Amino acid sequence: MQTDRSKDRLRLWLKVLKATRAVESEIRENLRQKFTTTLPRFDVMAALSQHLDGLKMSELSGVLKVSNGNVTGIVERLVDDGHVQREKVPGDRRASRVRLTEAGIAEFARQAAAHEAWIDQMFDSVPEAEVQTLSDALDQVARRLENEGRDR
After folding, report:
1. Fewest beta carbons within 10 Å, which of 18, 25, 65, 146?
2. Would you say the pTM of this structure is higher than 0.90?
3. In whole angstroms, what is the distance from residue 24 CA to residue 93 CA?
4. Residue 68 has what DSSP assignment?
């Protein structure tokens, strides 16, 4: 038997999902219109911006939590655009390391600043006092699920 609390939590999840989809859709459209790029390209550049020495393709896939196959095509397009460079990994003929180029660092900085402004605008109706409370609550859910996933 479902309690009112469980129904409230279900409604909360549906609202989080609806908001997430709306925000993601808006970001995708903004990236397409303003930068002629995609959210997956932005995500790859964001990951590489946190690892300026570069990442092996397998490490990049791990950071993004996607398969190597998903990342390969995206990286190829970023290489073609001059935003990412590929280097051989000494001692491992099959592996390559990818990192942002100077042009990629500059381009990601432009995109990241716009992205932050878009998010700020999309969430400006959330009262400042509730931002941290919501953030903490969602973080608790994520941490709990990650910990349960490790225990399996």
Report:
1. 65
2. no
3. 38
4. H
Q: Which two tokens stand for residue 111?
A: 């995109």
Which position has the token pair 């969602």? 138
CA dist 62 and 9 (Å) reads 31
pLDDT in tens, the chain (152 residues): 567 899 999 999 999 999 999 999 999 999 999 999 999 999 999 999 999 999 999 999 999 999 888 899 999 999 999 999 999 888 888 888 999 999 999 999 999 999 999 999 999 999 999 999 999 999 999 999 989 877 76
By CB atoms closer than 10 A (0-12, 13-18, 19+), residue 28 is middle
